[in-house]
Amino acid sequence: MSRLFGSVRxxxxxxxxxxxxxxxxxxxxxxxxxxxxxxxxxxxxxxxRSAQAVASELAARTPLDKLxxxxxxxxxxxxxxxxxxxxxxxxxxxxxxxTGTSEVTPAPAPSDEDDRDxxxxxxDDSLDPGEIAPGASYTNxxxxxxxxxxxxxxxxxxxxxxxxxxxxxxxxxxxxxEHSAVGTALTAMLIGFPLLLGVVAAVTWLVTxxxxxxxxxxxxxxxxxxxxxxxxxxxxxxxxxxxxxxLARTTNATLxxxxxxxxxxxxxVADASxxxxxxxxxxxxxxxxxxxxxxxxxxxxxxxDTVRLQNLAADLLLLARxxxxxxxxxxxxxxxxxxxxxxxxxxGVTVEAEPVEVSGSRGQLSxxxxxxxxxxxxxxxxxxxxxxxxxxxxxxVGVADDGEGVAEADRERIFERFVRLDAARSRDDGGxxxxxxIARDVxxxxxGTLTAGAAPAGGALFELRLPLAGADRGTPRx
Length: 478
Fold this sequence. Notes:
Elements: H1 8-59, E1 77-81, E2 86-89, E3 93-97, H2 112-115, E4 137-145, E5 148-161, E6 165-174, H3 176-228, H4 243-292, H5 299-323, E7 331-334, H6 335-343, E8 349-353, E9 357-360, H7 362-379, E10 384-391, E11 394-401, H8 427-430, H9 435-445, E12 449-454, E13 460-467
Parallel strand pairs: 8-10
Antiparallel strand pairs: 1-2, 1-6, 3-4, 4-5, 5-6, 7-9, 10-11, 11-13, 12-13
Helix pairs in contact: 1-3, 4-5, 5-9, 6-7, 7-9
């Protein structure tokens, strides 16, 4: 059961059915109440007309035994005086309730003296002789006529008679039609609502199943990709332009990015293994030769290979930390002071810097400047210029050399890991090709950018842009 209602299709069907059920119950209740009120109002109107007719006869001095309204078969009528004494009632009326008096047998007729009305006893607010009060009051009750008991809507109308004083006429209209109509409507709802709910549930089940069919295809393909570990596969994209199609396109974009990341990781591991193999093999060879012939030990070469191996391991460790998304510290760093420290002791390097503070890791930013200067020294002829300036909301560090520069087609490729544009350059002179890759990754983690271009005086120009301290760095790119 939990698995059945754990699906989106089941929950959507159940939710739609419940909403429609609540709406139908509310609408049905409102319809029944409205129907009942209308029919009850019509019955009240009929009862009032009957009471008005009897009151008109009383106002015209019609004797009680001559009243035509007392002969109606389905209209119970009572006439009571201001003391609540029943003066007349419909024929065959056996029982009545809801009119204020349950008497069905009239009281004996009063004498002539008692029947006269004393004008001095009449209230100031009483009606004039022969006048019928406007409007009526309504009540619900029951009446039994000839052994048949039914519900009635009663109307009470007051009339001032010239000879009997103030009288009240109670007349009723049967509510059988109201009960029948309400009962018929209720029966129809009890039969129709479940059928309608069944149709809604079936249609919702079919529609949601059709709508979610592409999602199930995406799920199956993702399960197959997970099982096969083949990131070259893609999920099917529906030909629609809805959310499911956008989900499929986003999923395929994620798979493509994941495939590219895995490929970069594999290439990185392969390149790292290759780069590590050379200094390790060289160091091993020197140690083996020294073990057999101590007098041939090249101590300087062994130290150089060890340092190279140590630097390469440090670069790989830093790249691994950057790949895990490690965020830099929030320390304020003066780029001008950092640039002067990085340029100290290097020949041909001039620094033109204004104080500019950024937020980040001092060690990592120092590593970026050192890598840029190392790269510039390998390609410069005589001069390297470092500039630090404020530009809008960013700090800009430029490192320019007077070398041959970088071809426009290679200005992005040089930031890839283990890339060395000069194939003939030796590893000892050119390094492992990780310096610029590390510099860009650090820049990105600090919310900035690192680009390569052409220097105004020729050569290459590398520009590092970072948000000023206190500015929003945004979300670092992966």
